[in-house]
Design goal:
Blueprint: E1 4-7, H1 11-22, E2 30-33, H2 37-46, E3 49-50, H3 54-59, E4 63-66, H4 73-80, E5 89-92, H5 99-106, E6 112-116, E7 126-132, H6 138-149, E8 152-156, H7 162-170, H8 172-189, H9 194-214, H10 219-226, H11 232-242, H12 245-263
Parallel strand pairs: 1-2, 1-4, 2-3, 4-5, 5-6, 7-8
Antiparallel strand pairs: 6-7
Length: 265
């Protein structure tokens, strides 16, 4: 069985590790390195092994997961460079970091999987976009898919769209949180308990997602089914349309994509 090494032990790495353990992946085949001793102690408490450094973690791993921030990639990849080879698959979960960027920094055309997960992975409700390089083995491709599918939904996306997909699933939980927060604040301003309102809002978001996925209706049809002519929903929608709600969302998503492009340079 292959050893999976994690460089970084933050929230994403923790979610992926827990997802693997929940699928009975052996803890002694999971290796983690982080600069923070407390994080390493926590990882050991989960039953996985820890490494003393980036290079030692990579040397002992078949699949190397780079779970660090984009701005830390140059130094981490420099440390990995001496041990990179075609038999090791590198998994990158940082926004804007391309397959070519990783390979160039490593000086090796090793297999690379570019992944854009999101934070609901922590609750096994993640949404992850995957893009494997052309030279990855079917075994490694399946194993990387398993790493993320164990904590949510996965879709394969062409690399040409991996910066754009960040706005779709990577950053989008923040938009949804802002939307929910605004709704709850309105309720509170009307004298409704904030917690009770948020509970109803969360249930509404969950139910609406289920309708989008399972009803068989398009988003437009579902909107129409809630909107009676001259009713309350139309009054709200008319105000959103007047302020170009869809256009604002698309502008925000484009800003997200533009920033991803900047990070990858």
């Amino acid at each position: 069985m292959k050893t999976i090494g994690f460089i970084g032990a933050g929230n994403m790495a923790t979610a992926i590790v827990k997802g693997l353990l929940a699928q009975d992946y052996p803890g002694d085949r999971i290796l983690v390195f982080d600069l923070c001793d407390e994080k390493l102690d926590y990882m050991r408490s989960l039953g996985v092994k820890t490494a003393e450094g980036v290079r030692s973690a990579a040397e002992s791993s078949d699949i190397i997961v780079l779970a660090v921030k984009p701005q830390n990639y140059p130094e981490v990849l420099e440390e990995l460079k001496p041990v990179a080879d075609l038999n090791k698959t590198v998994v990158s979960i940082a926004a804007g970091i391309s397959i070519a960027y990783v390979r160039t920094a490593l000086g090796c055309d090793c297999p690379v999987v570019r992944v854009m997960p999101n934070t609901p992975l922590l609750l096994k409700k993640g949404a992850s976009a995957l893009c494997p390089s052309e030279n990855i083995s079917e075994e490694d491709k399946a194993l990387v898919h398993r790493m993320f599918a164990g904590s949510g939904v996965c879709e394969y996306i062409e690399e040409a769209h991996m910066n754009e997909i960040i706005a779709v699933n990577g950053s989008s939980p923040a938009y949804i949180y802002l939307f929910a927060k605004s709704m709850a604040e309105y309720a509170e301003s009307c004298g409704i308990d904030y917690g009770k309102a948020m509970n109803l809002i969360c249930a509404t978001l969950e139910g609406s997602a289920k309708m989008l996925r399972e009803s068989g209706d398009s988003a437009d049809t579902l909107i129409q089914k809630v909107s009676s002519k001259g009713g309350t929903t139309i009054a709200a929608l008319d105000r959103l349309y007047a302020h170009d709600f869809s256009g604002i969302i698309k502008e925000a998503m484009q800003a997200c994509t533009d920033r991803a492009e900047e990070l990858g340079k």
